[in-house]
Amino acid sequence: MATKSRHATAYRSLPAFLRTLREEAGLTQRALGKRLRKRQSYVYNCETANRRVDVTEFLAWVKACRTDLLLALHRFIRRRF
């Protein structure tokens, strides 16, 4: 049985990392959604792995959290590997 890529082991740590970035920025799901021009449910679904986040969405998320992109990427890589 094939698994969806969002359930792949390599992806599992990303939703929690996205939540960490949001919380460190002091944002609620609603506030981040507003910055992203998305609904709060979009943020929730990304953070709970109900929705897969692609690289462009990751970039927008980091920018909306006002975090340095390279620092965020480095932190994720260190956390993941």
Q: How many E-type strands?
A: 0
Query: What is the helix tally?
Result: 5
Total discrete domains: 1
The CATH homologous superfamily is called lambda repressor-like DNA-binding domains
Q: Helicity, in percent?
A: 55-70%
Beta-strand portion reads under 5%
Topology-level CATH name: 434 Repressor (Amino-terminal Domain)
**What is the makeup of the main sheet?**
none
Which term fits the overall shape? globular
Mean pLDDT across all amino acids = 91
**N/C terminus separation:** 27 Å
Q: Rg to the nearest angstrom?
A: 12 Å
In CATH terms, what is the architecture? Answer: Orthogonal Bundle
Oligomer: single chain
List the topology elements.
Blueprint: H1 14-24, H2 29-36, H3 40-47, H4 55-64, H5 69-80
Helix pairs in contact: 2-3
Structural notes for this entry:
The chain is mainly α. It has a single domain, classed as 434 Repressor (Amino-terminal Domain). α2 crosses α3. It is globular, with a radius of gyration of 12 Å. The mean pLDDT is 91.
